[in-house]
Structure prediction request, 375 residues.
Amino acid sequence: MKKRMLAVALSASMVVSMGVVTLPVHAEEGEPYKAALLLNGTLGDKSFFDSANSGLEALKEELGEDKFTFKVEQMGATSADESKWEPTLYDYCDDGSYDVIIVGTWQMLEALTNAANDYPDQKFIYFDEAFDFSAGGEENVYNVMYKQNEVSYLVGAAAAMMTTSEELDKVDPSNKIIGFLGGMENSVIKDFLVGYIQGAKDIDEEIQVALAYVGNFYDSAAGKDMALTQYQNGVDVGYNVAGSAGLGQIEAAADAGRYAFGVDSDQAALLPDYAANIPSSALKNVGNSLIRAIKADMEGNLEYGVLEYLGFAEGGVELVEDAHYEEILPEDIRTKVAELKEQIVNGELTVPTTLGENAISEDDFNALVDSVKVQ
Prediction:
């Protein structure tokens, strides 16, 4: 396995001797388009990484293995695994047989930045964190992010209505406390949170939000402990945005006889034993976005060197509104949620965000969080 230093030296020598680095990244005629999905985590999270993998599986089924194939590499999510993330990425770049290498999350940003510079002819898809294109030269990276603030706004609105509903058997309508469990306090998780809080406040200005961060995205036991504390202190509707760690909140909701909204995948469908406690899930359609990008790349239409944000209008996010959702949530709540979604899609309602050019200031973000602190 080549270390990064060796890869850099090789790249530099090729530039000097040939003037350009050439890597075989395009499928030969008659050969399938080949992708590599490198996960800084593992499959089985019933959430974010499973969504990415499912999208590629669906694309392979749609197109057939003669036209599209992929390999998934599970690199692990613990602190002990971090040291192998960048070397693994470089191994795949060195392989040279992949039309595109796919990585995601803020934790892979530095490794991808290095690889994109060292392998200018290798194409990359980067999801769920902003790539810094300001330095130039990274025209081999397509960057996609999601408007999780939009779908979280609907979750917050629904949670605020649920917590005082007389029709739901798992809430105490006498209080106005809802919960949020994040994996780590980073820009994307804060975007979930700002939408959630604003959606709840727009329903009820007196709403309170109990907030906790696990500190990682894999420790479901810690997530469960934190969520149980929230439920014991009056929360009756929670929202988990913590990857595998967030599964702990769903277990806690079942133990406490409360509710927890799922995230990234349809967790009520994936966790049938807990479905009665999961009204719906906020989907970040990672799989759909990868299908969209790869199809465009296969047609020669994917624009590299740019960042795209996908929201409701582009199919980048979604709230699961199926028969299960209709069974759990009263009609008046569902009707209001549908109205709010339509207002977001048609531009009548703009949800605050912590990302991009329209991001609210850090002071405004902190003021919003402080305004819903549990008293």
